């Protein structure tokens, strides 16, 4: 190989030596139009017209970014360097040869030390697969254009495309299609040659080569695709309620192509088609009778056709739908009879039935017959109702009832369906471990077979909002899917019943949802009972049709103004709650959200304000104030009781009672003389009736005759009168001489002494008596306070002077003592006498 590289380099040098001038010092080869993806490519770089660099100074790189590793280099000689790379990727790119020496000459002439090869990448052409060609019907003839399509094998790049050409050859010549890059094309045959032999193939070519597909060799009519059968019509026949007669017309003349037909049908609304075997229609026919159909059922019918020769060639499209209903027939199956409530306690039992599965027509009525042990009891005809075919049966007076129902249509009566109702409460046969769940849009029910082996069948029932549906299951079944139409977000009450010899035994039930969602509305807070530091909330449950799932919990959120809310989780079985640790006299906003496994929904906000005072606070204040007031009153009364003398003295001054006073009459010269009080006296002291003016005058006249013992008694003030006619009285006590001793001072200190000097000359204006009369000094010792008039002698004196005193009565004559009767014994103490007032004292 080394010699071949040298020869290549020599050839390149010889070619460039012919040029007048060299524009580069590096030359690369070979420059090919395309390279195949997935193969190895070898290139050579030769140094020309310079000795500045050698092969050791060269290197290779792809698109100026990826340097080829040196392990891929092959050094041919000092002026040639080869490289081998694997072609990968679909995008074309450059392979450059460059110089890595950094000399002044190389630096100044960088463009002369780089040269490259453009690698245009491509896939080699591959043989196409699944070639098929069709000549479609055009009116009453076959089109002269042959449409072919195939599956391309291998890839194509943007720079190098693969060209495809269809070739058709028959006895009249060879035809070819236009070249295309796609996987389908059309060949123009001019007119379609029936009954000739076609040879069809595809040629694929690009810059890397050419390849042919397998040849398709068939009769020309096997490439024809006709129109579907025309005027397809179905006819019901009253005598054959299980059949429909189908008629059609050929889409093309038999002289050009003979056809075979295919028929399919299904019940209206179903997507499961039934096909008629091809052997039954592989004839020149224009009609066919469909059999074994259901009476009074609508069917959809379609047809298509193709070339009958060789049973090959493309099928035509399916014809348009032809829908017809078979005639009615007598019901062939029993109605589905069921009860909506048990008859264990003699109540009314409502029975309901569905149309027979094979009603074979419109059910117009149901015949109800009740039997007991002795035979039929009664019969009833129930008109058919689309919504509910039901009747109520009372077991109040019946122990055993057998209910049988048949269905009627226009063609006859169905077999009877029976159900036994027993009015007894025995031990029930029930299934165990009932389980309900949903999966992939279906609701499944599973249960455990009861111990009693005499089970005839099971009935799976599901009810919601007063609507009930059911399905029957074989006695060996313990797991099934509910086949009825179930709705999302609706709660169903699912039950399984055991049927034992026509007798129904009820069991437990479970609630389930086909699919749960968030509640449609939140709870409604209807009442709140705020207290001082708590509030009791009551809310209504969400209506069943608005829950859309099982409520897992409630969440109570509440907050004060301008504060973050607090939340409390409450169990789903609660409809009330008491919020605690609240502040008094504070407004709160509260809302409640109900949650399911799929989401939650909140109620409208509700506001309340806590009480200003805690319960019992006002009552405590009232009781405390009342007790305090009562205590105050009791203390005041007690104080009044203890200080009654002080209060009496301040608010009700004591009026002196002369009847309780003792008056001592004494004279310095005469001993005191007691006088017996008279009962008819108004006052106990007669001198009280003497006028002040008279006393004063008398006192002045007799002053000289009154001889008082000066050293014995000294009175600061003179007082006269007790009662309303007192004059110049004073409450001051008398002052005794120092020779009287302390005893006298003590005795006088605790009493109020009254003293008066009374003239003995009689009344004013009367002639004095012939005998000498002496003045008398009278003193009274009393424990009673003085009168107000006695404490103010000046006012009493002025008032007393205005009074006109009556003459004294004989019995009120003042007491007199002779001066010679006074003895030295009187000096040691004053003899006091008290004259009580028999008539009491007069208020002042």
Automatic annotation (TrEMBL):
<dbReference type="Pfam" id="PF06328">
    <property type="entry name" value="Lep_receptor_Ig"/>
</dbReference>
<feature type="transmembrane region" description="Helical">
    <location>
        <begin position="621"/>
        <end position="642"/>
    </location>
</feature>
<feature type="compositionally biased region" description="Polar residues">
    <location>
        <begin position="816"/>
        <end position="835"/>
    </location>
</feature>
<keyword id="KW-0812">Transmembrane</keyword>
<keyword id="KW-0677">Repeat</keyword>
<dbReference type="InterPro" id="IPR052672">
    <property type="entry name" value="Type1_Cytokine_Rcpt_Type2"/>
</dbReference>
<dbReference type="InterPro" id="IPR036116">
    <property type="entry name" value="FN3_sf"/>
</dbReference>
<dbReference type="InterPro" id="IPR036179">
    <property type="entry name" value="Ig-like_dom_sf"/>
</dbReference>
<feature type="compositionally biased region" description="Polar residues">
    <location>
        <begin position="747"/>
        <end position="768"/>
    </location>
</feature>
<dbReference type="InterPro" id="IPR013783">
    <property type="entry name" value="Ig-like_fold"/>
</dbReference>
<dbReference type="InterPro" id="IPR010457">
    <property type="entry name" value="IgC2-like_lig-bd"/>
</dbReference>
<feature type="domain" description="Fibronectin type-III">
    <location>
        <begin position="228"/>
        <end position="329"/>
    </location>
</feature>
<feature type="domain" description="Fibronectin type-III">
    <location>
        <begin position="519"/>
        <end position="613"/>
    </location>
</feature>
<feature type="region of interest" description="Disordered">
    <location>
        <begin position="310"/>
        <end position="337"/>
    </location>
</feature>
<comment type="similarity">
    <text>Belongs to the type I cytokine receptor family. Type 2 subfamily.</text>
</comment>
<keyword id="KW-1133">Transmembrane helix</keyword>
<keyword id="KW-1015">Disulfide bond</keyword>
<dbReference type="Pfam" id="PF00041">
    <property type="entry name" value="fn3"/>
</dbReference>
<feature type="compositionally biased region" description="Low complexity">
    <location>
        <begin position="769"/>
        <end position="782"/>
    </location>
</feature>
<feature type="compositionally biased region" description="Basic and acidic residues">
    <location>
        <begin position="325"/>
        <end position="335"/>
    </location>
</feature>
<keyword id="KW-0732">Signal</keyword>
<dbReference type="InterPro" id="IPR003529">
    <property type="entry name" value="Hematopoietin_rcpt_Gp130_CS"/>
</dbReference>
<feature type="region of interest" description="Disordered">
    <location>
        <begin position="719"/>
        <end position="844"/>
    </location>
</feature>
<protein>
    <submittedName>
        <fullName>Interleukin-6 receptor subunit beta</fullName>
    </submittedName>
</protein>
<dbReference type="GO" id="GO:0004896">
    <property type="term" value="F:cytokine receptor activity"/>
</dbReference>
<keyword id="KW-0472">Membrane</keyword>
<feature type="compositionally biased region" description="Polar residues">
    <location>
        <begin position="313"/>
        <end position="324"/>
    </location>
</feature>
<keyword id="KW-0393">Immunoglobulin domain</keyword>
<keyword id="KW-0675">Receptor</keyword>
<dbReference type="GO" id="GO:0005886">
    <property type="term" value="C:plasma membrane"/>
</dbReference>
<dbReference type="InterPro" id="IPR003961">
    <property type="entry name" value="FN3_dom"/>
</dbReference>
<keyword id="KW-0325">Glycoprotein</keyword>
